[in-house]
Amino acid sequence: MSGSIPFYQKHHLHYDRGYRSKETQSKVSQYQASSRYSASGSASAATRSRGLNVSSHSGLEESRVSPSPKRAKPTYLAVDKDNQIIGYVVPIFRGSQEFATGLSDTEEARVRDTAAYMARRDLFTSGLEMERSELISRKETMRESAERITLNKRIHEHEEHFKRMNEDSLMHAPEFVIKPRSHTVWEKQCVRLHCTVSGWPDPRVVWYKNNVVLDPLANPGKYKIESRYSVHSLEINKCDFDDTAQYRVSAMNSQGELSAFASVVVKRFKGEMDEFLPAPRRAITEVGPVSEYGITFQTHIVDKFGVSFGREGETMSLGCTVIIYPALHRYQPEVEWYRDDVLLSPSKWTHMHWSGDRATLTLTHLNKEDEGLYTLRVTTKSGYETYSAYVFVRDADAEVEGAPAAPLDVRCLDANKDYIIVAWKQPAVDGGSSILGYFVDRCEVGTTHWIQCNDTPVKFARFPVTGLVEGRSYIFRVRAVNKSGISRPSRVSEPVAAMDPADRARMRGTSAPWTGQIIVTEEEPAEGIVPSKPCDLQVTEATKNYVVLSWKPPGEKGLEGVMYYVEKCVSDTDSWQRVNTEIPVKSPRFALFDLAEGKAYRFRVRCCNSAGVGEPSDPTEATTVGDKLDIPSAPGKVIPTRNTDTSVVVSWEASCDAKELVGYYIEGSIVGSNVWEPCNNKPVNVTRFICHGLITGEKYVFRVRAVNAAGISQFSQESEAVEVKAAIASPTPPYGITVLECVRDSMVLAWKQPTFIGGADITGYFVDYREVIDGVPGKWHEANIKAVSERAYRVSDLKENKKYQFQVRAANMAGVGIPSLPSNTFLCEEWTIAVPGPPHDLQIREARNDSLVLLWKPPVYQGRDPVNGFYVDIKEADAPEEAWRGVNTKALEKTYTKIKDLKEGEKYVFRVRAQNKAGVGKVSDVTEPVPALTKPGTKEIVVDVDDDGVISLNFECGNMTPDSKFVWSKNYEDITDTSRLTTETKGTKSKVVFNRPGEEDIGVYSCLVTHTDGASSSYTLSEEELKRLLEVSHDHKFPIIPLKSDLAVELLEKGRVRFWLQAEKMSNNGKVDYVFNNNVVSQGEKYKMNFDKNTGVIEMTLESLTPADEGTYTFQLQDGKATNQSSLVLIGDVFKQLQKESEFQRKEYFRKQGPHFIEYLSWEVTPECCVVLKCKVGNMKKETSALWQKDRQQIKVDEHLGFAEGVLKLEIAQISKKDAGVYEVILKDDRGQDTSTLNLTDQGFKDLMNEVFSVIANSSTPLKITSTDEGIRLYTFVSYYNDLLQVTWHYKDSAIAFSDRIKSGVVGEQLWLQITEPTEKDMGKYAIEFYDGKGGLRRTVDLSGQAFDDAFAEFQRLKAAAIAERNRARVAGGLPDVVTIQEGKALNLTCNISGNPVPEVTWLKNDKEITSDEHCILKFESGKFASFTITGVNTSDSGKYSILVKNKYGTESGDFTVSVFIPEEAGGKKK
Length: 1471
Known about the structure:
There is one protein chain. Helix 4 packs across helix 6 (127-165). The protein has 14 helices and 102 strands. A hairpin with a 2-residue loop joins strand 90 and strand 91. Helix content is 13%, strand content 41%.
């Protein structure tokens, strides 16, 4: 094994022995010597460690063999008294005088020998003695070398023999000689974990991160794992936050497995560590670094972010455009962002970006911690520029209704080995009920598992978290709870490691950032020493929930890892009780819980280690359990002050005697609403705050409460109400001073209005001038004592050919503002040019998406001739000078124009030139850039004509301020003739009323609202528009009630007559006169009137019409001064027809009061050719009877009479002539009767039958061809055949004349045409035509070609078969099946025989032919009769007999059986 220590340990003072005192060095030397001798004298160590094998044997053999003292070979492993390897021993080199003490005996002998040699050389100069001394030295050296070689050989042979003889005894499980140590490093640095493992066979070593195997190949360049000479290392390159974890190294062989653990904590540089950071490297481009020398930069921040409002969980971006002049390529200023004057660094919560001209800060996930004043600072060599605006973060919606908002600003105040104090700030919103307390959660870094640290809520905003694992890192969060539920969790704290503060302080040392590693180490133990008592024990924090103790460890150094026991006792007693009986604490801090509130306790602490428990510390003074920190008192008087139109400055008196004050919460409420909203969600630690986001014009009251760790104070008293409106200030300076005219002793100046007028109208301007002599300005002089209202002024009493500068100040009710910058230097000399001077006072009005209005004032200097027109130029704001173009080609006479066809969103600038007869004069000053954009909420002037015919122009502005005013003008000039117009303003609306509208009023009317962002509009009153408005005005003065419909008549149920009309709109005061034949009729028995004023429907009804009701009906309407009328004339045939219809409707009404027919009697034919008579009835009841009649004769019920679903039906299955007649249905009950009649005679019956025939025809199948033994038959089938059906057969479109050869007929539902003995002449197209009284229906078939040939061949076949069937031999009958006859009797059987030709006859018995003889006589007579006779039968004649007849057309047989019985047998059987 190598004796050198790892490279990273060389850089730490802990491993550098040079810093120790001489006493300490001596102790270390003794310790090293004892360790080395212990190692050489231990045989067991040799069996456990192959690395010590050579060293141990070397020590034994050298001491035994060598006659002279020899220097022992050093070993670099240190062992304790139990021969356990505990670490490395740093070698001490002879050349270093600093480490001369503590040498071994052999080494000291060598030093003495060398010193004697040097003395002899100095004292004795004899060459012989010198030679002898040198010879002795050479011999000794040679002997030592030889002995060393021999000894090494013997040791090697002995070792090999020992291995062969005791191989099993060498095998043992893995052991960690040196375990890996925990490390805390900074981001972007590297860390190496190393360990030394022994074991036989060689163990296999695997590294884990949070119990996951590390694979260097899966993360190339990230991890490097090495194993050399039993030293194993894991190197983590460029650590980041995710590398914070617990690492495990596992060693395994056939004898077992063992693991060791180490934690790595990766931290970022924070606060005080910034000074130790290495200087950032400046990027050097290919061209080289940018030089700033000799350049003065001007920095301007534009496009600034304003006061911003966000909600928790959202993402917000803040940005500004930064303009640096001169613009150098690749030059980058220093851009910094601050929150509440604290520099922000990039993190997962804040992202910063610089694009070259824009700085952006993105808050990725808003929390209340992000609320505050954000400042952008841009620094160059020439200085810096800053801009600030406030960001407000509202609470996210509670997960449970009524739950409080989340706490904020969770921090770790005191971190030790096993406990950490967590602190937070209370939220501003409690959800409507007081907060009962808080829950603290912890999560180990590298995991996602949150554990609640306290079982019951704590009200104090600090809590000590115990039960932590030393060396591991944690994050914390806090949740608030009230009676409605638990809030959302706060933002998590920064990670903090549970470790001793001394270790943390050592890691913050100056060498930490430069070593590449920060290693957590332990002091070297000193054994067998019981630690002394701790000191400086005190109660650092006491609440009613817990008490925190702190103390200092014992003064002695080098003690073994000390732990502590804490004891308590009730005051005034001496009964001490150990608090942590099971596990002693490692940290010199401890939190005690479960103490009785109100009781007084004393505390003391004992140290302990493996040697025992030490003496107790001095007890503390009696401490009473309770909150030592009181809730702050309510703040004092609250004073609100106007600030802007959406904000108010709130100041208050600080809370008296408030301890550990965190800050203040401010709430605001609209007067009368009793709804309080938080103005800030993050406590502010000042007594003045600007509350933003308020509603302009509303009155607010405010209240404040203070916050510290103990809780939130009571509210202060409510402030006085303050209206939200901009505070008044003096205006900013005017700008753009120009000369409009110059004569010998005076100059006319013009200037532009200040960009900010201070919230009040400008009352005037003051002009100052000073003479400039040889470039040196003189003293300022007032040009006017009295303020001038116009933005142009003539400065008199100047000297000709002298140079002057001017400045202007604006004034309002708040005072006179600061003066403008001095103007350019102007020469006072008379202008003699012929063309006009420049126009001035250019103003932009009525900016819209595609147009705007430009106003100007004519030039003061007219030139040689009067001004006769103007030209307007336009260009895009960012376009070059060459882009100027004219708006008009013809000179404008007026001093205003509307510029159209602009591009939406584009910014434009304008200028104006005047002309006279001499030409076009100087250009005016260029306007400020103005975008072609319609601002939100913009409204236009609306013309209105009221009910009295008064014409007015109306304008409304929604974004007015309290100081805003409506300014009306005609042709963009002040209205001076008030006799023609009257102006009325109320709230946000204003109108001008035309008193006597006429041609004098034609023009452009505009309205401008002051103290707004340019709200204005115009309306052009042309001659045509005036004419239209006058017509509308006349209609309003003399109004006519509009009608939706004129007077009309309609019939209602029961035959009532309704006269009605509908007006467009009538008020509740409207009335109607009903006039008949010029006589007003009124409500009565005959006339019923109704007027629905909501719908405008006016109606009059009559029960019935009589001849006296013929005439003219008129409705006369009146509503105020509006009138109208409508008339309806009912005379002659029109009246008679209406009267007839009314009577019919009346009768129908009474008919329907009883059982009645909804649909009268009708018929229909079903697809089955069944005729159904039906009618639909209504208003039926159980007692209602339905009587069917035919020709006045009642039809019995069983004759297919049906009734279902209000329909009466009578079915006639097979209709014929006898079914013709008049059918009638009578409905009758106690309410009355109704009758329906259907005439099915003559034409009615014909129509019915034609429908039946049509159904039959449509049901017919296609005409088909078949063959018979007589000829060819054509046929079709119908669903039903009626005898009255008329059918016609056609051959080649001609009706067929029937004969004996061609016949037609009907068989069932088959209609056929028979062609007997067909010939080729019968070939052609055949058709059958059904007559249905309409167009009829025809079915056709083509009997020709192959169809005829097939049918004719089939006919021939069937005909031959028929002939054969008629002429074949037959046994016509006469033979019985069985003949039973008594023996001795005669048997005679005869049968008829037919056939042509005469058949041959053969008789068979038992299938054998028999012939005629005397016993059996067979005869065949006349070719028709065959006889069979047996004269006397006997038993042998029994059997089966057959007669077989045969001719050329066929054969047939007849069978019978003869059974002969003997009489005696028969009698016996009977018995």
